[in-house]
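Per-record layout

source: Nonomuraea endophytica
name: RimJ/RimL family protein N-acetyltransferase
length: 161
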Amino acid sequence: MTGIELREWRDADAAAVLQAFQSEDMRRQAPWPMITLKDAQGWIAAWEGVGHAFAVTLDGQVAGNVAVTGIDRHLNGWVSYWTVPEARGRGVAAIATSMLAEWAFKERGLFRLELGHRVNNPASCKVALKAGFLAEGIERAKLSYDGVRYDVERHARLATD
């Protein structure tokens, strides 16, 4: 798939962020309720100083987010990703996550990237595997949403992979 690019988030992307967080699965993952453009602008601003987040664009339109955070002294980082519903199932997330990994290894000098997904989310697992992240194991009952505990599968990709 062509037409996928990573770029810095812009204040002008707030409407796209707000729209993205309206889908049911994304609402659960929002750090706070996304109701207004100000909420979405806050989400964009909140990335400042916590890592590197990039808008994923598909043919110039915002289609998702990829980020690496939690960078430690061992040159490890935590990867996260999401795409808007319209971009799912098209390989956008896997390509963007692979692009992020290459950037993190080459530009940021990281050695190990980790990510995790709920085991009941096979689509996210496919993204991780297609982006070159190998499965490393299950973290039992790691996440809790609405009082329900979820196991998480951990994946990692090394600069030497």
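summary: The chain has one domain: 4-158. Residues 53 and 100 are 9 Å apart (CA to CA).
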